Predict the structure.
Amino acid sequence: MSTINQRVELLIKKVANTKSGFSQSTGISTVILSHISSGRNKVSLMAVEQILKAYPKVNAEWLILGKSSMFKDELDKDLTCELKTELQELNQELTKVKGTMEHKINKMIDKINDLS
């Protein structure tokens, strides 16, 4: 699992390409960003706030904890895909149950007809 410092470094490469560009967007000095990259400084809460304000599509849970997707829209896509798969599985299960129930009902109808 990556550290928050590593995730910030990855985010810099993904959204700004350079520490200078990231610094301009977030207001975090390039010196602080270099210290974060080297591990000399830990990422402060203020830095997290500045990053999330500058890049609102960044998933805070990913940035802080390293969980889920880097960007919120990726999270939505992942969730949509997951829900679609689950819905398909439930639909298949329902189809099987329906078939079984129809078979049992037909057997009962046959038994009733045999009794008459």
Remarks:
- Residues 71-116 form one domain.
- The chain has two domains: 4-70, 71-116.
